[in-house]
Specification:
The protein is an alpha/beta fold. It is built from eight helices and 20 strands. The two termini are 45 Å apart. Bound molecules: flavin-adenine dinucleotide (FAD).
């Protein structure tokens, strides 16, 4: 099936705090942005690594959690109605001269954009792969690290491994459609939200699913088909559990990933930029937030916000080559008020 190419002014790679604020700064200049992130939600490190931790150095917020900051940024960019393309990783970035760029994600979404803003932080979040022999051959066929469509798991005999929120959330979401769900965790206690733990235990008590204390040690099957898993229980012995699908949820690590393949100059896995435009070694490709480097760089959210403002100003000349950039304050400019929907 061929899909339409999405035409936009700016593709922002990474929907972390800095990518989100870039939507605002670009929006003030009438530059439409599409955001792409491998995660299933916006917020980058703030939402994925420390949603409930307080941050104390966001200007004008004496204290704000990672998730609250994400929610406020989402509210702030609402007037610009950005399109989010989540759960997909930008793999290809191909320059097309004056026409800008062609980008492609791992699920084959294609974009045409006049400018690209790399706000990829520490790189793409990548699931931790459990050290199980033969797992790579089963990935994408019987072993999955995320759920893109619940319907794909209908009538499957699913083994979910892990003790955090992802393992519990997907257990609860998949149990109604699966043939059978078993969650395996090393301990009786879970790290996830108490309410999810309660719901999972109630399903186990009702006989609607199983909970096994143990650790997946081996996978059985072949040719991309999982047939069972060997689980080491409390007594140290390994017993076989029949299943055709494994979902391991052992957290995420950050890896630079495809950014390294796009022909940009790199300095120890960071993208060097100038501090006037935040442009990379390639014209029309900008890098802001944790992913960039320059003399004096501080990996702070507030630095990324500043970088987004200056980047947008310079991106403007590529998107509107014949227009003159005009500096305006949001407090006093009636044209900015209109864009922001201020009554
Ligand atoms: C525990 C902790 C506490 C912190 N406390 C503070 C603090 O108090 N104050 C402060 O200022 N900073 C703090 N930081 C740092 C702060 O979180 C980062 O500076 C900030 O998140 C950087 O934002 P970003 O948008 O540049 O990148 P990120 O938040 O890393 O977001 C980048 C996003 O890009 C996505 N991505 C990357 N590559 C691709 C690709 N190819 N395709 C699709 N998506 C991709 C990633 O999945 C990610 O979601 C803290 C960090 C941690 C871990």
């Amino acid at each position: 099936m061929t899909r339409d190419v999405i035409n936009t002014d700016a593709v922002i790679i990474g929907a972390g705090p800095v990518g989100l604020f870039a939507v605002f700064e670009l929006g003030l200049l009438d530059i439409k942005a599409d955001l792409i992130d491998i995660l299933d939600k916006p917020g980058g490190q703030c939402a994925e690594l420390y949603p409930e931790k307080p941050i104390y150095d966001i200007p004008a917020f004496p204290v704000i959690t990672g998730q609250e900051l994400t929610d406020k940024l989402m509210q702030q960019i609402e007037p610009f109605n950005p399109a989010f393309h989540l759960q997909q990783r930008v793999d290809e970035l191909e320059p097309k001269g004056e026409d800008g760029f062609r980008l492609k994600t791992d699920i084959e979404t294609e974009f045409k954009a006049k400018i690209v803003i790399i706000a990829a932080g520490g790189g793409s979040f990548t699931p931790k792969r459990p050290p199980l022999a033969g797992i790579e051959d089963l990935e994408g066929k019987s072993v999955f690290y995320s759920v893109r469509r619940i319907e794909d798991f209908r009538d499957k005999t699913i083994l979910i491994a892990g003790g955090g929120d992802s393992a519990l959330d997907w257990t609860l979401a998949l149990q109604p459609v699966a043939k059978r769900v078993t969650i395996v965790h090393r301990r009786e206690e879970f790290r996830g939200a108490p309410d999810s733990v309660k719901k999972m235990r109630a399903l186990v008590d009702d006989g609607a699913m199983d909970f096994v204390i143990g650790q997946v040690m081996e996978l059985h099957g072949g040719n991309g088909r999982l047939e069972g898993a060997g689980i080491r229980g409390k007594d140290g012995g390994i017993s076989r559990l029949d299943c055709d699908t494994l979902l391991p949820f052992f957290g995420l690590t950050m890896k630079l990933g495809p950014v390294a393949d796009w022909g940009l100059n790199l300095d120890e896995n960071r993208i060097p930029v100038d501090t006037e435009k935040f442009e990379t070694s390639h014209a029309r490709i900008f890098a802001i937030g944790d992913i960039n480097t320059y003399p004096g760089k501080l990996k702070l959210i507030l630095s990324g916000f500043h970088e987004a403002a200056l980047m947008a100003r310079h991106a403007y000349r590529y998107v509107y080559p014949d227009a003159k950039y005009m500096f305006q304050h949001t407090t006093t400019s009636s044209s900015l008020h209109k864009k922001l929907g201020v009554k």
